[in-house]
Design goal:
- There is one protein chain.
- The protein is mainly beta.
- Helix content is 12%, strand content 40%.
- The protein is built from one helix and twelve strands.
- The strands form two sheets. Strands 1, 2, 3, 4, 6, 8, 9 and 11 form an eight-stranded mixed beta sheet that branches.
- The longest helix is centred in the first third of the chain and has 19 residues.
- It starts with a helix and ends in an 8-residue tail after the last strand.
Length: 153
């Protein structure tokens, strides 16, 4: 085998091996900035979102400290959430859905959390921790999707 062909083969093999073990994209932590505003507006998110993206299916969305995040009609998916002293407002129980796909990682800040006019679907293989304050559910529903079986109270 020609030396140049052998070198190219070694480079190709190394590239393939390293690309197979490259780490997956890591989750980012996004903090909701305004006192009240639209969830799906990138400029309303700071932290790892830096005002350029909204939290996605691998990310943590943090909404706390008396803030109201308003979800438009449709489905919004996040990895997990950090909530407390918060209102999550939807466009209607059958119109707005928040999917929390790693719900066992939820963290609760101190203070009441209100889910209003929306559906929240929690998916987790671990127990979902209890809220750290009162929880209010107004014209909303919380759904434990398979395999989630436990929401601690």
């Amino acid at each position: 085998m020609d030396v140049s062909v052998r070198k190219q083969l070694v480079r190709l093999t190394a590239t393939v091996c390293f690309s197979m073990i490259a780490p997956a994209a890591s989750a980012i932590v996004c903090q909701f900035i305004p006192v009240s505003g639209q969830w799906n507006t990138a400029a309303n998110w700071g932290g790892g979102c830096s005002g350029s993206v909204v939290p996605g299916s691998a990310d943590r969305a943090e909404v706390s400290g008396g803030k109201t995040a308003i979800l438009s009609a449709g489905v919004t998916t996040v990895g997990d959430v950090y909530l407390g002293g918060t209102i999550l407002q939807g466009a209607g129980r059958s119109s707005s859905t928040l999917n929390v796909v790693a719900a066992g990682n939820i963290a609760w800040a101190t203070g009441p959390t209100t889910f209003q006019d929306m559906t929240v679907v929690f998916t987790s293989t671990m127990p979902i921790p209890a809220a750290n304050g009162p929880m209010s559910i107004t014209n909303a529903q919380l759904v434990l999707a398979t395999p989630a079986t436990t929401l601690l109270a």
